[in-house]
Amino acid sequence: MNKLVIGGREFSSRLFVGTGKFSSNELMEKAIEASESEMITVAMKRINMTHEATDDMLTHIDRNRVQFLPNTSGVRNAEEAVLAAQFSRECFGTDFIKLEIHPDPKYLLPDPVETLKATEQLAKMGFVVLPYIQADPVLCKRLEEAGAATVMPLGAPIGTNKGLRTRDFLQIIIEESNVPVIVDAGIGAPSQAAEAMELGADAVLVNTAIAVAGNPVEMAIAFKEAVKAGRRAYEAGLGAQYHFAQASSPLTSFLD
Amino acid sequence: MNKLVIGGREFSSRLFVGTGKFSSNELMEKAIEASESEMITVAMKRINMTHEATDDMLTHIDRNRVQFLPNTSGVRNAEEAVLAAQFSRECFGTDFIKLEIHPDPKYLLPDPVETLKATEQLAKMGFVVLPYIQADPVLCKRLEEAGAATVMPLGAPIGTNKGLRTRDFLQIIIEESNVPVIVDAGIGAPSQAAEAMELGADAVLVNTAIAVAGNPVEMAIAFKEAVKAGRRAYEAGLGAQYHFAQASSPLTSFLD
Amino acid sequence: MNKLVIGGREFSSRLFVGTGKFSSNELMEKAIEASESEMITVAMKRINMTHEATDDMLTHIDRNRVQFLPNTSGVRNAEEAVLAAQFSRECFGTDFIKLEIHPDPKYLLPDPVETLKATEQLAKMGFVVLPYIQADPVLCKRLEEAGAATVMPLGAPIGTNKGLRTRDFLQIIIEESNVPVIVDAGIGAPSQAAEAMELGADAVLVNTAIAVAGNPVEMAIAFKEAVKAGRRAYEAGLGAQYHFAQASSPLTSFLD
Amino acid sequence: MNKLVIGGREFSSRLFVGTGKFSSNELMEKAIEASESEMITVAMKRINMTHEATDDMLTHIDRNRVQFLPNTSGVRNAEEAVLAAQFSRECFGTDFIKLEIHPDPKYLLPDPVETLKATEQLAKMGFVVLPYIQADPVLCKRLEEAGAATVMPLGAPIGTNKGLRTRDFLQIIIEESNVPVIVDAGIGAPSQAAEAMELGADAVLVNTAIAVAGNPVEMAIAFKEAVKAGRRAYEAGLGAQYHFAQASSPLTSFLD
Question: In this predicted model, what pLDDT tens digit does every residue of A174-191 receive, in sequence order?
């Protein structure tokens, strides 16, 4: 399989994992380890904006193997996002930033205009910008032109577990994009992660579905397997859908 | 994971593979090996009703590891099916029989009445009967009562690759069945196989999607991984779907 | 528009309406009148098996305009169904019978084998048999051969309002049937009734969606309009679906 | 039913019709008349930018009854859109403008940033702006704040006839919007138009599905009926979907 490269860094795993909503830090760490993910999102609130990583979570993870992806969750516009990204760079010692600007507290959907504006600024400032956005193909092209390292269109509203409700638009985005496409938000089951990969997505980000599973560690493994399966199927070449049945077995009548 | 038991035989793999439509026997064998399947369907036409297995296909497969599942494809009613099953028992030396009675040559959909009748007779004759049928929950209960070893409801018409179009009914079948439920027909991508397993299906049967893939061996591996992922997710406990967004990251406003 | 003929009787309306679940008989009557339906189902329990129609419901409906369609709801097998049909013929003075055999009290799904058996017997006895069944194309052909006046495949389990979950199979049934196809059960919104008609169904049966609506009379009108719209669209010839956009407006660049 | 008001004008019909793709102007006129639409889109190319309406199409339509909605199709950015709107105002003598900015010629998807910019400018210039956009709830709020008279989110890419692929997002837009929501693009069948209205959309715009139908005039009537049915159902209050069956008929066993 081709490797995924973002911001000059190579990733063997195509499963990105979020760190919110776990019932304990210990469980989160174990799930992340089991997932074999090499890119994990971290909320800045976790470190309370102190300039050192005091959160237990951060101390046990091998950053040679795992890239931290701080997100800007909680900011309301481009200006706040840029400020947050600068803090983040100091705190976490990384240029990677997951840009999340969602002014509406109910559905947490991203703001396309502020996201584009912040992407432009942050890219100029040397950040590796991964913007979380609607599955809007034109916006994705503009983010790419503005210097985004990837685009991260959503499959369904965050935390709904509804899967690829934006499938028709994800297909267009994947077809037209020159930067990696990572499906973010809405993926609630390994089958949905596999579906995203079969469409040709470069990676998926999963958080809620692992964190709130009955057994988060086993669910992390299930997602790992499903992402591999989906990517492998994409590379192996899936068949088309047909209206009529296509017999698998010879059909000449049995007793002729 | 709990093991799957059918006809007194234990199966580690929950992926059943069909042997039709491959471009060569060699490719078929390699794909089957890669799939790690322990149950493969074989059409009786393959051996031309001679009483010995002359087909190259059959000679290279280790029957200690792999159970042959001859199918009755081509028969039009219960009477022909019973006759075919008897031939099959002699030819293949197994009591396992995949019952397929589909009089209509266009969509190859199964006949519920003849299938039930044949199941009753074959079960009495000591066969391990795996009937291929519509995703009809009442019929499934009647087949179970008639002695079917499993039920094999279809996801979509054979060879269409449309996936779980019968999902609402599969859920009911799985909930109510006392015998293993194997989703047969229509599964066109690993994500769809994973979805069936997440619903709680005991196994899936895949043929076309592997056989006609750009790279059948890689696709077989992808299905193997996806089936494992789906089963693991089912056992780990998937979350519900929500209408409203559920934030993964702390949302207290950034600059407060 | 071509008229619908069942049992030698011509129907201008393609909306059949059920009479269960209304909060009052008065509301039911008004809704039926508003629907302009010419075929309404009646449960035999309504008349308590007395040989006269004492139910208020029955007295106010003009049977020259509206065909009563008694159903056998509550029977568990063919034998009971035949008995129920005979009672029904005496009570209601009609040969029309909606055959419903659903032994399972949870999902109320029809029994294919007993339904076929009862259809055969009732057709021989001169009944106009409208069997309620799974969307099983092979079963539909066998019912047709057994003398069914129509087939009534379900869209989704009764009362779920889920719409045409069996769409793929309804299409095949419609394509292959020589008797009218009436989609029964699961239709929860006028849009879903329209969709069934667009596929080429000859009629739809709606009950729950009208009876439990905020305003059942207005909802009955909405279904009436939607059924007409769907049928008209079917006859006018719908376009295909496309993957790529098809511009509606001239696209030559504006300022060239 | 409540009336729809846009730009101070009241509309009895909630079906907007596009004028592209018809095989003749005569057929277009007849279809528009049959649709009873009071808002029809016109492409500026149709009048070749001459300052008089020479197109036959325009001369036969009663503008007291029908509002012309010129669109900016063909422009690539906000600047061109503003220029086009000004021409349009002169040519058509109306402040109504359908804002369409889609730089990509393949999928004709709208540009969110340029659309917002043009909306701001045109609203300040006194235009009644109806922007065509992605089903992006945050963008819709921003367009509303910028002075848009309505929002016109797409159901699927233009001309694909795929229906409400953006359904999850349309629901949020409808819930949150203070201006009328008109579903534009992708609606390929009357059932889909009814579905949009059932969700609570204020109107739908249909073009391709009518223009390319086997019989465009009949299809226009079908859409008219379906839009009415869907709106009526929305106002009458639709029931919820259920997982379990809900019996319509009394279920006490028949022969007890």
Answer: 999 999 999 998 899 999
DSSP string spanning D42-72? Answer: EEGGGGTT-SS---HHHHTS-TTT-EEEEE-
Residues of C in contact with B111 (CB under 8 A): 138, 142
Judge: C244–D20 Cβ closer than 8 Å, yes or no.
Answer: no
From the list D98, D117, D224, D228, the catalytic residue is D98
Percent residues over pLDDT 90 in chain A: 71
Whether residue A246 is contained in a domain is answered as no
Which residue from D74, D122, D35, C251 is spatially nearest to D130, judged by alpha carbons? D122
Are D74 and C223 a contacting pair at CB < 8 A? no
Is A213 part of any domain?
yes
pLDDT for the residue numbered B50: 47
Residue D50 pLDDT > 50: no
List the Cα angle A10/B248/A110 in 5-degree steps. Answer: 80
Minimum mean pLDDT among A98-102, B61-65, D200-204: which range?
Answer: B61-65
Q: Do D233 and C219 touch (CB under 8 A)?
A: yes
Best mutation target, A249, A252, A253, A256, to test chain B (most B CBs within 10 A): A249
**Is A243 within the bounds of a domain?**
no
Residues pairing with B5 in the sheet: B10
Query: Which of A191, A232, A242, A246 to probe by mutation at the B interface, max B CB count within 10 Å?
Result: A191
In this structure, the number of other CB atoms found within 10 A of the CB of residue B218 comes to 19
| Sequence ranges of the binding site of D for 1-deoxy-D-xylulose 5-phosphate | 159, 185-186, 207-208
Amino acid letter for position D250:
P
The values of phi and psi at residue B131, to 5°, are -85, 135
Sign of CA dihedral C153, C159, C160, C162: positive
Q: Say if residue A45 is exposed, middle or buried (CB neighbours under 10 Å; 0-12, 13-18, 19+).
A: middle
User: What is the chain A residue with the closest CA to D76?
Assistant: A138
CA atoms in the 13 A half-sphere facing the CB of C167: 18
Output the six-digit token pair for C57: 């419901």
Q: Do the beta carbons of residue D37 and residue D31 sit within 8 Å?
A: no
DSSP state of B151: B
| Residue A201 reports pLDDT greater than 80 | yes
Return d(Cα A198, Cα A214) in angstroms, integer. Answer: 26
User: Is C211 within any annotated ligand binding site?
Assistant: no
> What is the rounded distance in angstroms from the CA atom of residue D177 to the CA atom of residue A118?
26
Which CATH number belongs to the domain containing residue A112 in this structure? 3.20.20.70
Quick check: C224 and C31 in contact, CB under 8 A?
A: no
Contact between residue C97 and residue C122 where contact means Cβ atoms under 8 Å apart = yes
Instruction: Indicate whether D103 belongs to any domain.
Output: yes
User: Which pLDDT score is estimated for A1?
Assistant: 52
* Nearest residue, CB atoms, D113 vs list A109, A116, A157: A116
Task: Tell me the pLDDT tens digit for each residue of C138-162.
Answer: 999 999 999 999 999 999 988 788 9
Q: Tell me the shortest Cα–Cα distance from D159 to chain A, in angstroms.
A: 14
How would you label B176-186 residue by residue, b for 16+ Cβ within 10 Å and e otherwise? Answer: bbebbbbbbbb
A132 is in which domain, residue-wise? 4-236
* Residue in B161, B204, B195, B159 with CA at minimum distance from that of residue B16: B204
Identify whether the C-beta of residue D18 lies closer than 8 Å to the C-beta of residue D206. yes
Query: Burial of A256 by CB count in 10 Å (0-12 exposed, 13-18 middle, 19+ buried)?
Result: exposed
CA C154 to chain centre: 9
Q: Which of B107, B110, B169 sits opposite C172 (nearest CB)?
A: B107
| Structural domain count of chain A | 1
Contact A165 D168 (CB under 8 A): yes
Instruction: State pLDDT tens for residues B189-237.
Output: 999 999 999 999 999 999 999 999 999 999 999 999 999 999 999 999 9
Question: Which of D190, D228, D244 has its CB closest to that of C106?
Answer: D244
- Report the 10 Å Cβ neighbour count for C126: 10
